[in-house]
Known about the structure:
Layout: E1 8-19, H1 23-28, E2 42-48, E3 54-62, E4 66-73, H2 76-85, E5 94-95, E6 99-106, E7 119-122, H3 126-132, H4 140-150, H5 184-193, E8 198-205, E9 218-220, E10 228-237, E11 242-249, E12 258-261, E13 265-270
Antiparallel strand pairs: 1-4, 1-5, 1-6, 2-3, 3-4, 6-7, 8-11, 8-13, 9-10, 9-12, 10-11, 12-13
Amino acid sequence: MQDIKKKFWLEKFDCFSITGKDARKFLNGITTCNILNSENKVIKTCWLTPNGVLRSLIEIIFLERKLEVIILAGNTNEIIDYFNQIIFPADDVLLSEPFLINRIQEIDESSSWRTGKPIFFKTEDKEFEIYKKKLNLLNPYDLKLWKINQAIPSLEMEINGKNNPLELGLQDLVDFNKGCYLGQETMSKIKNVASLKQEIRIWKSFESNFNLDVQDKNLYKNSDKDISVGKITSFFKSDSQIKGLAMIKRKYLVEGSYLFSEIFGKIIINKSVGSIFL
C-alpha cells in the first residue's frame, strides 16, 4: 500500500494517439523537445506558434507501436485540427479521435512538477479504481494552490496568445540543439541575445478587502499607479490567502519585492518552484 503521507495529483486530460512509421519525425518538427532521440518513456514539450508563443503544453507517452499525446494545457480540437492539416499525403502518420486519460503523479512541494514520473490509466481500466483508493489524493482546492506554486500555465490565462515558454519558465522543455521546428527561430533569438522582456511570478496579496469588479489587471510599482510593471494572469482565493500568477517586466523582478494591484492591493512576488529562466 502507498505511504499515506505522500500526496498525489490525479487529473483527467484529453489525449489522442499518433501511429505510423513517421509519427516521431512528425511530432519532432512541430514541438520543442527532441522526440527522435529521446530515451525517456514520457516527455513534456511545447507546441508554439511560428512566432514562438506557447499554444499548448503537452506530454508524450512512447509506446511500442504508437505515441500518445496528452494535452496538459491547450485546446485539444485546435491541436488535432492543425496536426491533421499539416500531414502530407506521403507521411505515414495517423491521428486517433481524442479520449480521456487519468494521469497520476506524486507531488513534491520543493521540486518542479516536471521532475515527477506520472503513471496513466485509461478510463476503462479496472485497476484504476483499485489503485486510486490507495492514494492520498490532493483535493481540488489544494491541487489548485499547488499548481499556482508550481506556475503551471493554464489556457486563456498564462497561455493567452502572448507569452512564450521561456517567459513562462519552461526553458527545460525547449531543445536548442535539435533541428527545425515551429517557433525555433524566435526561441534561438531569445536565448542567444537573452532578451526576455518578462517572467512569470507567483504573487500573494496582503489585503483582506479587495474588489473583483475592478477590471484593471495591471500591476504597478506602488499605489500611485504611475508605473505599470506587469499583468495578473490568474488568481486563487482561499479562506486564509489570495495567491496567483502574473507576468512581470524583468527590470522590476526584485525577489520578495512589493507591488500594487488595483484589485488585490499590496502584493509580494516570488519565483515559483517549477520555473527555470534564462
